[in-house]
Write a structure and sequence with these properties.
Helix content: under 10%
Number of helices: 1
Shape: globular
Radius of gyration: 17 Å
Largest sheet: 8 strands, antiparallel, barrel
Length: 244
């Protein structure tokens, strides 16, 4: 049975992550290295329920450092999974959105590839408590709702941020790809790269590698409140999002 402290802590992380969602009436545009906002249609995009596949290895068989739990695809509305392209045009993914029962789905992390080889810090999260992924608008890349990629004259791919909260019974951590404290020009972290690969059926991918991301695969690991930086780690991953 999950300790009461854990859901409360992670719920707070989820609320904090959701609070920085971009406004539906604004889109970011980078102008000579500075951020400006251009008004777009005030109509929010229609949410899309998803089936998410978390790949365990690339085409050459090299393992990713964020992997599935081995139980197959993550389907929105099944096994306490919530996976949608939301009304803000971002990817919201919770492998366990229940606080009343033990988690049945999660993802697995491998932190054994720090950017600094001398970094010996390794977090010890509980697999059942690393469930909340949030994505959204970075200050350093143009953005359109993910639903609109590859249609109506929009580009097929774009860069944004992605973050995930983790914990065990005593400690919380935050993994960030250009999110929060890492959404600065000097961050070594990769962007989350969103790409539409098919219109019908509707399919998108998310990976920390792409032409709009100067760095690849690197994420930061911080304390749950973001104040302590434990280091940077190579965390390649590949998610496939298919409209349900």
């Amino acid at each position: 049975m999950r300790l009461q402290l854990i859901p409360l802590t992670l719920a707070a992380l989820a609320v904090a992550a959701c609070s920085d969602q971009p406004k539906p009436t604004e889109a970011a545009r980078v102008v000579r290295g500075t951020l400006s906002f251009a008004k777009v249609a005030s109509t929010s995009p229609t949410p899309v329920s998803l089936i998410v596949t978390v790949s365990d290895a690339d085409a050459n068989g090299t393992p990713y450092n964020i992997q599935s739990d081995g139980k197959g695809a993550y389907t929105d509305g099944s096994q306490y999974v919530s996976a949608v392209l939301d009304k803000y045009g971002t990817f919201a993914f919770n492998t366990d959105n229940s606080t009343r029962v033990a988690a049945t789905r999660w993802v697995r992390y491998n932190f054994n590839s720090p950017v600094d080889p001398s970094n010996t810090y390794r977090p010890t999260p509980s697999n059942s408590n690393n469930y909340h992924f949030s994505t959204g608008l970075s200050s350093f890349s143009p953005w359109v709702p993910i639903q609109n990629l590859g249609v109506n004259g929009n580009p097929n791919t774009e860069c944004g941020y992605m973050g995930n909260g983790m914990s065990n019974s005593k400690t919380t951590w935050r993994v960030s790809f250009h999110k929060g404290e890492e959404d600065v020009a000097t961050s070594p972290t990769a962007f989350a790269v969103f790409t539409r690969t098919s219109v019908s059926p509707a399919v998108w991918t998310v990976t920390p590698v792409g032409s709009c991301s100067p760095n690849s695969n690197v994420a930061s690991l911080r304390s749950g409140d973001g104040t302590v930086l434990y280091g940077y780690y190579n965390l390649p991953f590949f998610f496939t999002l298919k409209a349900k």
